[in-house]
Each structure stands twice: as C-alpha cells, then as structure tokens.
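Shape is hard to put into words, and the shape of a protein is harder than most. The fold becomes a row of whole numbers, each drawn from a learned catalogue of backbone shapes. The outcome of that step, for a single protein, is printed below.
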Amino acid sequence: MDKQNWLKQYRTNKHAVWIRCKLTNGEEFNYDKFEGWRQIKDKCEKENLFLKELYLQYRSNKATIDIQNAEGVYLIRSMLGAIGAQSKEYYTIGLINGETVSKKMWITPELVLDKEYEDEIENCFEEAIIYDKTKKK
C-alpha cells in the first residue's frame, strides 16, 4: 500500500485507529472512523469488488488481517464490560467461511489481540459483512 498517502492522512488524526485496505481493483482506502467500513462495503457491493489487503493500524502498531481464504469479512466496533471493571473497546474482525465466522477481538486503541473464537453467521450484523462474490455460495 502507498505509504506516502497513508502518512499524509495519518498526520490529520494521529490518535485514531485506522481501517486500511486495498481492493481487488487496486484502490486503497484509509479511514480513521468506523463509518469508513460502510463506505468500503457500499463500493464493493456496487462495483463487485472485494478486499485484497486489510489492516488495522494505531500509530506504528499494524494488525495485518489475513483474508486470503475468506468468503467474506466482518468488522464491527464493540465493547465489553463487567461490573466493577473498566469497559474495553474493540474492533472485532471475523473471517467468514460457510456458516462459520472466525472472530478476533482487538482492544482499541492499542490493537492488542484479546480474544479469538468461532461464531455462527446468524449472530453477525449483515450490514458489517463484505462478501467476496467470487467465493460466496
């Protein structure tokens, strides 16, 4: 991905967790807000595209998401709390294969991988999923 373009955008908001991706048509996107994921989804659906590369980045800490074999990608912001404890904010990323979603929860803003588990597709928000239409059955 184009490092110079990324740095220019990064300097506008150094405290954000960035969603960075490259699409199958070569276009690159860097969003400092979750709403950017919806824009990526809309573009992919309208132009029959998918993700070629996907990263979360906070400052120099870059979480590379391996999407090579995924039929779809799920991304949401989430929060986990417990009585008497401080709540934690996350980006949850899921890789979809069939009816199974392999999810990883990254604590934000630090981008520390905190939890990994498998879930069923029916427990995911459809509006947060981008499918690879060449693989989806």
User: Anything to note?
Assistant: The longest strand covers residues 88-97. The chain has a mean pLDDT of 94.
